[in-house]
From TrEMBL, chain C:
Family the entry assigns: Belongs to the binding-protein-dependent transport system permease family.
Keyword Cell inner membrane: yes
A Pfam entry, by short name: BPD_transp_1
GO biological process, one term: transmembrane transport
Protein's recorded name: sn-glycerol-3-phosphate transport system permease protein UgpE
TM segment ranges: 12-31, 74-99, 111-134, 146-164, 185-210, 244-266
Coiled coil: none
GO cellular component: plasma membrane
Subunit comment: The complex is composed of two ATP-binding proteins (UgpC), two transmembrane proteins (UgpA and UgpE) and a solute-binding protein (UgpB).
InterPro entries: MetI-like (IPR000515), MetI-like_sf (IPR035906)
Subcellular locations according to the entry: Cell inner membrane; Cell membrane
Residue ranges occupied by any ABC transmembrane type-1 domain in the UniProt entry: 75-266
Amino acid sequence: MFEQFKTDLRWAGVRQNLVAWVFLLPFVFVYVAFLIYPFCRGVWISLHDWNLLAVTFNPDAKTFIGLDNYLRLFWGTEMTWRAWARPVLQGLCVLAALFCVWRYRTGELRWSTLWQCLMALLLLMFFFGWAPGEGGRWFDRRFWPTVGNTVFFVAMVVPAITLISLLLATALNRETRGAAFLRTLFFLSQVLSVTVVTLIWQMMFSARQGLLANVVREFGGVPLSWLAEPGFAMAAIVIATVWWSIGIAMVLFLAGLQDIPQEMQEAAKLDRANSVQAFWYIILPNLKRTITLVVILQIILHFQVFGQAHLMTQGGPNDQTQVLVRYIYQTAFRDSDLGIASAMAVFLFVIMSVFSAVQFMVSREDEQ
Amino acid sequence: MLYAKNRKLIATAQAVVNYKDKKAEKVITMRKTFVSMIAAAALSAGAVMPAFGTEVTLGRFFGSCQDAGTDVSAAVGEACIIQSIINAFDAENDDFDVTTLPTDWGNYYDQIIASYASGNPPDVHVMHRHRIPEYGQIGALADLTDDLMAHGIDPDDWTESAREAVTWNDRILGVPMDLHANLWHVNMDLMEAAGLVEDGRPILPSSPEEMMEHAEMVREATGQYYLAADFSEFEIGVRMVLAFLWQQDSNIFANGTATINTPEARNALELITGLFDGDYANSRTNYADSQQSFLNGEAAVLVNGTWVVDFYAEQAADEDVELTNYYVADFPTLYDEPATWADSHLWAIPASVQRDDPEVYEGALKLLAFINDHNIDWARTGHAAVRESVLNSDEYAELPHRSEYDNTVNIARDTPASARYGAIQDILNREFQAIWLTGKSIDAALSDAEEDVQSQLDR
Amino acid sequence: MKTMENRRLALLYTMLALPAFIWLVPTLWMVSLSLQPNALLARTTSNTFWGLIPYPLTLDNYLNLLAHGQVHVWFFNSLVVALGMTIGVLVLSTTAGYAFARLNFVGKKTLLVLVLLGLMIPEQAVFIPLYTLFSELGWHNSHHGLIIPRLAVPIGVFIMIQFFRGVTRDVEEAARIDGANTFQIFWHVMLPLARPAMMTVAILTFLYAWNDYLWPLVSAQRTEHFTITLGLASLQSNFAQSEGLGSVMASGVIASLPVVALFLIFQRYVVRAVAVGGSKG
């Protein structure tokens, strides 16, 4: 009797496993075959001197070179270590460390997490201390500036989008026709494809045919070639990107606003708080989690910027708008250097996973 | 018919949209969707392949021309002339069916590499002389040497430089179509106003100092720019610098050693930045803007290639266009020896097509023979022909403006052959733009460029 | 009180009118340029009211495109790819999401962590090896070649797990007591319930597919396999050389119309959908 029960139980367990795997198999197969395996393969390629064209015609044309590709990116000649070799990157680390400590002091970060973060940042600080000294130079002069441009782009776009979409969401969070119409209008540009967006803005910024130039000329000014002007080219890309992508952020904020209990807003009204006070004391604290979410999603998304730089400025002038993904694309498909391109892709993955890890940590800490 | 097709597509989209909340109708709608999707697929497949001959796919840049038709003699401009030649071949040959895949210039070589690497190259495609080493050294291109004569292509009729352009290790890997070079396109009215015309010909500078004097004369007389060119997008500016380098008997590299950080390069770059500093030229213009400013009569000289001669001539004849008196001149010699940047367009067939697909290979060769026969039509764009028989014909000599720049073929040059040509040009373009757009010092740019080019040569 | 509220609303809308106008102008300008003759645009783009009013007006640019262009082929490709991707992602993410959220099996925790780790791999980090892999398989220049890479991205699974976890167990228990097996429960009980979350996944996937640029750029090398996003990019510079600005802009408008129409029809769902995905993510 008991034996029978045990077999039944075991059989039930096997059955349950089988059923579960029927559900899982399609996804797991695709996932392993087209994400995990390619990723590992990417790491493997990054350890080779691998010319795309040459390897196509002769599979043996690749040579294993270990970490040389990474060395080419991260290293140079006459490398020396100094405490403030790269103030911007190292400064960012210090800021991040201060932020962690502050989160810990406000009780939002556990001791162990804080400790892990600080250790990681210290390591980064140390790594960034290495730079070419007297008479030395980076093996790849363009890599770090490209990373810098990408970071700068993210640092401009993310706060702008977050702020504008937050204000718009607050203003349009009401059940009137006008608000619905405006919500649609501000979201609309989000559904355009990157080629249409760049098409429009390339023309907008053109010094000869652009709308901005037409207006400026009307008032007797001399129009600017935004896309060729140092400093303005990046600004142009940032403006186009902000115009393009406030939609999703705005909707996320609208959703967050819907979750704020109606009574709180009513109470604020009874207290005769004006809109600014209501925004500051009611809305903002309640939206904290949504803001974090929006910021991190945007960072991950915009770190992968490609189309805008590729189509609007081709990375120019003088590489000022060259971004990481475009550099990867060019290295792989113009220069046929799959090895180095893959090493850069792995670097991109590392950066992305740091942000993802932060997001994961933040949402986990919030739930506790 | 076409409208019906589009309506059907929209209907498809709507069918997909409508599925919400209608459980009972769902299955029916889905089936409808599926049917109309298949219908749409059949229709668009039909639109791509109208006839039934062997399909030959053709990859090219030059831009798209939708109304090309089959009348080669009526076409103007690179895009329309080449497309009308292809269309005419297609109409004459029922056995073959050419599908043109026009790719945008900016991504062209990236996509050609990607197509080769995925084993899917177009059956015949255009490329430049300077790419031959990159593709030749890995055996990507079909060896046409023994098949040309049989198809009515006579390599001995080609000019020596054209034969060199398509030859790699003594084998012919392509069919040359032209020699194209940097020219000075001149607005004669502005030059006349500045007193720079003599015997109906523009007076062009013969030294750097003279160029600045001319620039000042144009500025004083007309208030317009002396010179316009694309300094902020493609490599037109780089090609100017290269010409000035060669004119001083210098080059960017030789025998695997980069030689960019030289006094000659400094001279060339100072000459150009001098134009910007004196406000005789605008460094911010891209390709389209520089062309437009020339057509609008805002610059006396436009530095651009041979590919636009017929287009500008046509524009000059247009009453609505400011430019009316158009002249084409050889790139002037400002230093010791004459030189201008030049390259060649040529057609190549992938080795895989020759090996695996004799029927397609046959079609591709026939098409190349047809293009070779129409060398005179392609020359109408302004490019130099590659066939001696064409070059010596009266028809060629009588092409508009042709006599004005007939020395260009003699002074044409390019940088030494290298499999990393594209990357090297990109380095030069970036560093030179850094000088005139972002104010980087010439010394710093040249030393950076030299190191970067050297590391490309060392790869 | 009511009038006061109205006055405040009026003030708000006046304040928003300017940004709204600024937000709209670029799109309006594109439409306006697409309706003007190419020959005119070659000379000036500010003919009437800085070019914002299409006068003189012509439909030639559109007629030309529809008669000759490959735009309808690209549009069809985009539609197949976007729909195929959406359906594929829906199937994979609902089944896997359900299994992770509700079924017990050996190694569940490990597998779940593995899948969540996949969230950190950006598409751009695997597009090179994927490219070489697809070359070996001969999958480039095809619809499935454009669809499959995205199927592996686990964000859909993640959203579905979150959703299924939130469904109370009572519904499932009741069905089980009625004698339904796991498949029946999934099909008849869970899927109908999961509609809003599926809508989220569907819309995000569709938008992504429609707008993706990098992968089609390397995988589709032949114009007849281009998606509308990619085709448009090639038109931009091809047309700039020959056909003129009006045609370029017309192609932009044509490429945008369907997705804008879809959005306007679906907009309530889009807004809700993003919100569901967002607040759970």
